[in-house]
Amino acid sequence: MILHQILHLSSIFRSAVSTHLRRNIGLSAIVFNKTKELDPVQKLFLDKIREYNTKSKQAGGPVDVGPEFQKDMNESLARLQRAYGEGDLTKFPEFKFEEPNFEETPK
Q: Would you give per-residue pLDDT tens digits along the chain (107 residues)?
């Protein structure tokens, strides 16, 4: 009887310790990742993305493209306008939804 109670308490204790350790390990991993320095490959990758973002904002579009890219882009836009109609295809469309009328109509 006493052995059964001890085993039951040990399983409860093991479960509580296990949950506590999982939470602490997960939290410490987040803290460790925020404080550690990026490895050289990650740093280089992020630097290149930031550099491209800066160049893209200065150029107002894609960076380091030649006239062939612009020609292909114009042909593609013209083909899409023929297929799908008028409008500026370089901008996201604006949707306008009307509120439905939920009032009861007299019979």
A: 676 667 666 777 677 667 766 766 666 666 666 656 778 898 899 999 999 999 989 888 788 888 898 899 889 888 888 888 777 777 787 889 988 888 877 66
* Whether the Cβ atoms of residue 77 and residue 90 lie closer than 8 Å to each other: yes
In whole angstroms, what is the distance from residue 89 CA to residue 76 CA?
Answer: 10
- What pTM was estimated for this model as a whole? 0.39
Contacts with 77 (C-beta within 8 Å, 6 or more apart), sequence order: 89, 90
Provide CB contacts within 8 A for 100, sequence distance 6+: none
Q: What is the dihedral of CA 82, 83, 87, 89, to 10 degrees?
A: -110
What would the two tokens of residue 40 be?
Answer: 């050289």
Q: Which amino acid is at 14?
A: R
Torsion angle of the four alpha carbons 39, 43, 44, 50, in this order, in degrees rounded to the nearest 10:
170
